[in-house]
Amino acid sequence: MTETWDPAAPGVLRLPSGRLVRGRGLRYPVPAGARPAFALYLLGKEPPGVEWEHRWVRWPDFWLPSDRAAAAEALREAWERALSERVEVACGGGKGRTGTALACLAVLDGVPAEQAVAYVREHYDKRAVETPWQRRFVARFSPTG
User: Fold this and answer.
1) What would the pLDDT profile of 11-63 be if each residue is shown by its tens digit?
2) Shortest CA distance to 123 belongs to which of 3, 16, 5, 4?
3) What is the pLDDT of residues 78-99, one digit of tens each?
4) Residue 94 gets which letter from DSSP?
5) In what order do the strands lie in the sheet with 53-58?
6) CATH number at residue 136
7) Lower CB count within 10 Å: N or C terminus of the chain?
């Protein structure tokens, strides 16, 4: 059985394939309603425990993932799971790292890398992907590894 997000819920991004992924900032309360089945947390230090399955990618604020290969693997897992599960991607504020990760998910979903930041800014948050190196990370992100 497929259990995905309500497309009208706050922070939910619809990828071109129809997959729904929720982005959010961990500094804010968990939104009311459905809980994630799986979450990808992008933080400089280990996140606090949650009741759902999650994966942590060490990713300092305003920077890039400490281990880019591990980040790419985690992003591929999140994209695959979003086909049939509620997947959440989150960092502290829900803009820079989360936007960068969502743009990478868009690339995995078929959006050309050079258009992925604009796609996420249009469909998720106009301030997503905050730094030039985050934009460059998305532009160089490859769907094939």
Assistant:
1) 999 999 999 999 999 999 989 889 999 999 999 999 888 999 999 999 988 88
2) 16
3) 999 999 999 999 999 999 999 9
4) S
5) 12-14, 20-25, 87-91, 38-43, 53-58
6) 3.90.190.10
7) N
